[in-house]
Amino acid sequence: MGFEAVIGLEVHAQLATESKIFCACSTGFGAPPNENTCPVCTGMPGVLPVLNRKAVEFAIRTAVATSCRVQSRSVFARKNYFYPDLPKAYQISQYELPLAVSGHIDIERNGTTRRIGITRIHLEEDAGKLVHAGAFAGAQTSLADLNRCSVPLMEIVSEPDIRTPEEGGAYLRRLRDILVYLEVCDGNMEEGSFRCDANVSVRPRGQKEFGTKAELKNMNSFRNVEKALEHEIRRQIELIEDGGAVVQETRLWDADAGVTVPMRGKEEAHDYRYFPDPDLLPLHIDEAWVEELRKTIPELPGEKIARLASRYGIPRYDAELLSSSRLLADFFEASAAAFGGNPKVTANECIQWKEAIVAGRLSPETIAHVVEDRETGTISATASKTLVEAAIGTGKPVRQIRDEKGLTQISDAGALEAIADKVIAGNPKEVESYRAGKTGLLSFFVGQIMKETRGKANPRMVQEVLKAKLG
Amino acid sequence: MAITREEVLHVARLARLALSSDEADRMREQLGDILAYIRQLDRLDTSGVVPTSHAVETGTPYRDDSVHPFGEKEEILKNAPDREDDFFRVPRIIED
Amino acid sequence: MAAIPVHEWTLLDAARAVREREVSSRELTRALLERIDRMNPRINAYITILPEQAMREAAARDEELAAGGARGPLHGVPVALKDIFCTKGIRTTCGSRILHDFDPPYDATVTGKIREAGAVLLGKQNMDEFAMGSSTETSWFGPARNPWATDRIPGGSSGGTAAAVAAGTCFAGVGTDTGGSIRQPASLCGVVGVKPTYGRVSRYGMIAFASSLDQGGPIARTVPDAAAVLGVIAGHDRRDSTSVDVPVPDYLAATGRSVKGMRVGLPREYFAGGLDASVRTAVEKALGALVSLGAEGVEISLPHTEYALSTYYIIGPAEASSNLARYDGVRYGYRTEGAKGLIEMMSRTRGEGFGAEVKRRIMIGTYALSAGYYEAYYGKAQKVRTLLRRDFQEAFAGVDVILTPTAPTPAFRIGEKVDDPLTMYLSDIYTIPCNLAGIPGISVPCGMSPDGLPIGAQLLGRHFDEEAILAAAAAIEREIPLPRVAPEEG
Ligand SMILES: [Mg+2]
Ligand SMILES: [Zn+2]
Q1: pLDDT band, very low/low/confident/very high, at B96 (cuts 50, 70, 90)
Q2: Nearest chain C Cα to B60, which residue?
Q3: Whose C-alpha in A94, A405, C43, C247 is 20 to 30 A from the C-alpha of A181?
Q4: What is the ipTM of this complex?
Q5: Measured between alpha carbons, how far is C253 from A229 in angstroms, rounded to an integer?
Q6: Closest to C432 measured CA to CA, from C275, C310, C266, C284
Q7: C6-269+280-300+395-479: CATH homologous superfamily?
Q8: Closest Cα of chain C to A64: distance in Å?
Q9: Rounded to the nearest 10 degrees, how much is the dihedral formed by the CA atoms of C64, C65, C70, C74?
């Protein structure tokens, strides 16, 4: 019997605000323990939350970018549970009435487009961090650092529209790229500013009802998400095929062992006792604000990929690579504008030097100049690489380096012909053999010319000249 | 509105309240009385009535996204029943 | 003025006397500290008394005045706060063992405003634990007593504040009112207490009981004194999202306003069974006073009144169960000894740190919010709250203020109801609807019971119309002269 997986993903994205969502403490990463705290985020008696406008703006922009409907009235609710990293013993979140609902993200897989629905987007606060004291196992105490408490998070919940681990990965990457394009989240999965949990179930192909789902946690890279989904789907199918049943539970991905394992410890049946937070009035968002923010939405990855591919005639795959960063894509377009040669070459260069480009260590002119010089035959492919590396290292204009290092190649047809004549004249036996059919000797002549020019001859032109002369 | 001892203990667990056996018994009785009284609300037809969370409902106000460090971390930490350096220290979580 | 002992002066007289340098703040403060020394052992109205600090503040106020500047309307006047307002560097207990040694890292907005106005802080006043109670018997620091009869309760939860004001140990205090906790003790102690409109006084730094109901307000011996303090503590606060940005009028001026032509609503549901005869007589007298000044009594109905108590005993505990979850022994306050593991530490800390009434309410609230019960309890209560609010809206279409008894009986005996929660809860039936609707209310003395216990009348007003109830209360106060400081032998 064939099975299909039903996957829904829940993403928690840390919003790139300066201050926390309900107090004026810094959201800065890596501060000493409890440095970024105040009476509000440590839940001192009597304190009250006040909402950060920027966090709301970021969520609205995300909602617009994912075609969600922003609700004119949404409500903050308290999610009640006890844990030492949760100072108030409740998390301020949104429950019944989230900020935005009913959106979608389109992903392209092998030439077809899949639309993954987004159920909801809501705002909430992060919790702190528990460090288990003592380097030894069996430490008797834990230590609480509340720096992360009340850092703004945006939760984005997908519909159970995802059917394969690859689709899950594609959805996540696209979502991450959108957030990064919007500059609302830095998208760093390893540092935890973009976290993903998954709900996974399987069902016999053709069946309408969902199977029992397991919740997967602890996947801290895109690759891990795909691997965890793969493993979990296989586990559930095998379980059912062996006559067993999936139990609803939370499972953790063990990246080292490559398996999902049930979360340890008796999970007291969760009863979060959500209710509207009386300390915060409902969030009212008017249409005018949404429209104002709509104007700030940049071209998004999907649109950009399509446009780059069609406008520059580059392969879709290259357009995807270029669009993985808004900065890289802009850089590509600036380079292409600076020299209107073959955009494919420009694209390759941009992809090759992505890291330096994103780090801001290359200018579009540098790439434009090397591409132009290569097309005119002024430099070789090898020289081009050397030159870009030098430009990154020194920050000097690439043509200045080229001239200083004498990396131009001889592409003057007349000069090359003269040298070819000299080489032909000096090797009559080889010429004879070549003309008798031993065409493999061409490389011998090329080598001789390179020797004469100390490697500066344009190899493509050398071949052309030689072929013409040797007949 | 009878409430069982089991329910009392379940709610106490949710609320992280250690109750002595006597307390649990008394709680069961008193909660039962109070809940029975409260359920007079059932007599009232509230279909179509919008719930009130705030007596005076306006939109929630905002603050600007600017950092103002509290700057007196020790004032917060000094109240800790137990600490290690600048951490709050708690007994470890025992899984049962 | 010399004929009247300092502790019987009104706050406004004291403020004027300091400002005009007839008396120094030090003299006033010393006199009241002596009064506290004499009275507090009998009434237990203070949890924390600040003799040195108060004298230092008084000296500073005197110097400022000598240098030519008064800080504000309460310059040099000794007052006190219910121990629910955070005071930086001064322990703030909320009447609970769980906060018995809590030293707040910040000042409540009310604390800050009192200081900015120039007041001298005498101490922190006793209260029911976490403001849950109607008698101040649930305090971890022992019950407060009614200065008019020390075998009786002073009301609650701001019982310490009301008793302290009635005993002449401070010129005014600031209390909090979630279901009557300012008005009911004011009534039982023969003083004036105002619960402002929800959102009028900042809740920042006021330890939360039920966030959608809590409101701070003054307790004083006269209506103008209460109006003056209200003027100081009212106003928008950016740190409290539920604080409302509306201008603060001149409350003191409102107390001089005529009540001629005022329409006074008399809800028939508040004058039904369970009302003590002496209370009924006294409130009727208050109505008589208003009518004699040209006001008009109008019978009205607030049909959902009988559901208010149930609604309150769902919403209040539900919010409280969440607000009080932070007392877990991790960051501040009491922590149990020797617990094995985290969960046991938290549960025992809370089991030992909270008293019976607080635990009861946490249990009710947790239950009402828990899976499967939310709609039947919390959801239902929120809907009934809408009906209760609507009752008032409709009533205020036809009347300017509503007059009712504040409490069904005069002060009862200590211990009389403490083990019978439901009966205890009933002592707030007249004050609770006001909190659910978020409207302002005031209790003003209007008579004495045959055994010499004070009785108060309650006036309720429209949202943000504290002026109308202050005007009516001041008129009653002028028409019905009553002693405001309890006799020392009480
Ligand atoms: Mg979440
Ligand atoms: Zn903070």
Answers
A1: very low
A2: C241
A3: A94
A4: 0.96
A5: 71
A6: C310
A7: Amidase signature (AS) domain (3.90.1300.10)
A8: 27
A9: 100
